[in-house]
Amino acid sequence: MPELPEVEVVRAGLEPAVTGALVTSVDVLDERALTRHAGDGAAFELALAGRRIAGAARRGKFLWLPLADGGEALVGHLGMSGQMLLRHPASPAERHERVRISIEHPAHGELAVVFADQRTFGSLAIDTLLPTPDGAAGGWGTDAAVAPSQVAHIARDPLDAAFDDGRLRALLRRKESAIKRVLLDQTVLSGVGNIYADEALWAARIHPETSARALSTRAVNRLLAEIRAVLLKALAEGGTSFDAQYVNVNGQAGYFAHSLNAYGRAGAPCPRCGRPITRERFMNRSSHFCLGCQPKR
Q1: How does pLDDT run across 45-75, given as a tens digit for each residue?
Q2: Most Cβ neighbours (<10 Å): which of 35, 134, 168, 271?
Q3: pLDDT tens digits, one per residue of 143-167
Q4: Of the listed 2, 66, 148, 208, which one is catalytic?
Q5: d(C-alpha 27, C-alpha 118), whole Å
Q6: What are φ and ψ of residue 174, in 5° steps?
Q7: Cβ distance 85 to 249 under 8 Å?
């Protein structure tokens, strides 16, 4: 599943192309892409066509395009394999194309924003914008203190200027659960999935099954610093692509997979101590860690 770096790469790619653009037409080819929308394909097309896009914002793994006439936004979640692609308006349909949004930009002219999704777990929706409880900007890419209602339950991510380190430390002190399970809870902090949880825990030398409340303040601070470091490095390298399912708006893959130290490297030597990386089943997925550098305490 695309995590924070992948979704931010998509948001940043969309921003200059859609900000100020007028939606000239909308074609819903598969209504399975509208599972989060309150209405059918025809209602979605009618609600979006003729409106102007004000920007592109993101919190965690959600992105949204605020609509200039106020109060609503086009919300996107990429799910497992969703893609938001910028294409020439006359380009042929993409494989697994679900929705095509035709736009006209004052500087860039006519473009098509294509939502493609092989596994159909992603979605688009028109949603209401709500004030943020803390009065801070809704997320990356916007100064407005609003966020879509579908994003209201999602915690801020560690790269958000309004992220509260003290709140995270207080939450962890109350959590008996394994620290990796807590990191994947998007109501605690958002944007961190299986890949970046494994990488940050490896960097911080913390076993994924360590109880969250057992971590010292120093360990939590170290972990948070490593989460931010790995997210920023992945973002700089365009995200992590293991196959053709995650690509940026131009269809290009990210290359952070070449920088992974733990995730997906079962049996390979740990880059730090040389001991083989261990893989264990975890919540219908896998955890990757080094028993030498990350002993279970």
Answers
A1: 999 999 999 999 999 999 999 999 879 999 9
A2: 168
A3: 999 999 999 999 999 999 999 999 9
A4: 2
A5: 18
A6: -100, 5
A7: yes
Which among 11, 51, 58, 61 is annotated as catalytic?
61
Report how far residue 221's alpha carbon sits from residue 99's, in angstroms, rounded to the nearest whole number: 42
Long-range pairs for 274-280: beta carbons < 8 A, 24 or more residues apart: none
Tell me the C-alpha distance between 102 and 120, whole Å: 21
- Is 285 annotated as catalytic? yes
> Among this protein's residues, is 61 annotated catalytic?
yes
- Specify whether 51 is catalytic: no
Domains of the chain, earliest start first: 4-151 (3.20.190.10), 165-289 (1.10.8.50)
One of 175, 222, 233, 285 is an active-site residue; which one? Answer: 285
Q: Is the pTM of this model over 0.90?
A: yes
Q: What is the DSSP string of 159-224?
A: TSTT--HHHHHHHHHT--SBHHHHHT-TTTSSS--HHHHHHHHHHHT--TTSBGGGS-HHHHHHHH
